[in-house]
Design brief:
The protein is of the alpha/beta class. The protein is about 40% helix and about 20% strand. Strands 1, 2, 3, 4, 5, 6, 7, 8 and 9 form a 9-stranded mixed sheet that branches.
């Protein structure tokens, strides 16, 4: 039995300068049966002092703050799932904030689910309460799996999973790697038949920060090749990609990493034959040399 309807979970790292926006939005929620669990992934700014202050303020919701050694967002989510006391688990990044009725809408949509093959609901992200770059559905909602969403549902979304289901899909942790896309667990749920209800209402406002994972782009994948490779090869397997598609994936993956890793490491990360990756690495080197000679 869960203590709350929703656990709002926030992983954070050196975001003391902006996490107050989320805190203020939580105080304005029209639905109050929730807790806020924050896992600080080793911040060295004044995040801890900020929460010391907030924990001494009387709010309508419970705040629990935990600090751990830096290990990446995916490890913080694993810890958050361990700590959660809500039926639903909603991850909200520390540079985002919620609309006033966000949690109310999540509960309204979740109350309509009567099939045990749903793993949760998902609302829209926007740059304001009435503006989003994402496609608005023709109907009120779309029911599909996270794998089905490729080509159907674009842009960033706010996912609220059933906590007991999400706990079955913790993130793998690789030594010396600090990033793994959240799509790894979403795709695993989908492959096991779990679907979600996606609705168009904007419930979360975002603004990508210069220190955020989105702004850092492909570098997070390059620096975390095992997690990157795991996501690609599992997605390809689950979607039953053709041989041609798999070869294109191996080729692109090799070109992304060939400048930084040897062919054996690349092959191990993506699960491809070593000889094939050696061939692609040679092609990369030839192309790189030609482009280098042109610049000269």
């Amino acid at each position: 039995m869960y203590k709350y309807k929703i656990t709002v979970f926030t992983p954070t790292y050196n975001r003391a300068y902006i996490i107050g926006n989320l805190y203020e939005s939580l105080k304005k929620q029209t639905f109050t049966d929730f807790e806020w669990v924050v896992v600080d992934d080793g911040s060295n700014d004044n995040t801890e002092q900020l929460f010391d202050e907030w924990l001494n303020i009387d709010t309508k919701f419970s705040i629990r703050y935990y600090k751990k050694q830096n290990g990446g967002k995916h490890t913080a989510i694993n810890k958050g799932l361990e700590l959660a006391e809500g039926k639903l688990f909603l991850t909200v990044d520390s540079d985002d904030y919620l609309t006033n009725d966000a949690l109310e809408k999540i509960v309204q949509w979740e109350n309509e689910l009567h099939d045990d093959k749903y793993c949760g609901v998902s609302g829209n992200l926007g740059v304001s309460t009435g503006e989003t770059p994402n496609t608005i559905f023709k109907g009120e909602y779309v029911d599909c799996t996270a794998l089905d969403r490729y080509g159907i549902i674009d842009g960033e979304r706010a996912f609220a999973f059933y906590t007991d289901i999400h706990r079955k899909y913790l993130y793998p942790v690789f030594e010396n790697e600090k990033f793994m896309t959240e799509a790894v667990t979403w795709n695993r749920m989908a492959n096991d038949g779990y679907k979600m209800r996606f609705f168009s209402d904007v419930i979360c406002i975002y603004e990508y920060q210069n220190d955020g994972l989105t702004k850092t782009g492909s570098s997070v994948f390059i620096n975390n090749p095992k997690g990157y490779g795991l996501w690609l090869k599992e997605k390809s397997k689950f979607m039953k990609d053709s041989l041609i598609k798999r070869l294109k994936m191996y080729y692109t993956f090799t070109f992304d990493l060939a400048k930084y890793y040897d062919s054996k490491t690349i092959a191990d990360c993506i699960g491809a034959p070593s000889l094939l990756i050696k061939l692609f690495t040679c092609i990369y080197k030839l192309k790189y040399r030609k482009s280098d000679n042109k610049v000269r």
